[in-house]
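testing teh design pipeline on a random one, pls ignore if ur not involved
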């Protein structure tokens, strides 16, 4: 379940809830090979839609906030 504050922040920043991993790599300015490795190792949350691996931006932000505690 998404925290209401997090959902509001995502809405304000106009971030998509899911993003194709290659697009995510470009967005965060990390080499695509590195992000592909993160996906394969399940180090970032993804959903597979057909043959596409989509990075779950909402869950990633939740995980990052949990580690900040």
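output:
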């Amino acid at each position: 379940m998404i925290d209401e504050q997090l959902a509001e922040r995502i809405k304000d920043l106009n971030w998509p809830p899911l993003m194709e991993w290659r697009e995510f790599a470009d967005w965060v300015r990390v080499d695509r090979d590195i992000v592909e490795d993160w996906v394969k190792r399940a180090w970032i949350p993804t959903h597979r839609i057909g043959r596409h691996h989509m990075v779950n931006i909402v869950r990633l932000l939740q995980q990052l906030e949990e580690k900040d505690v």
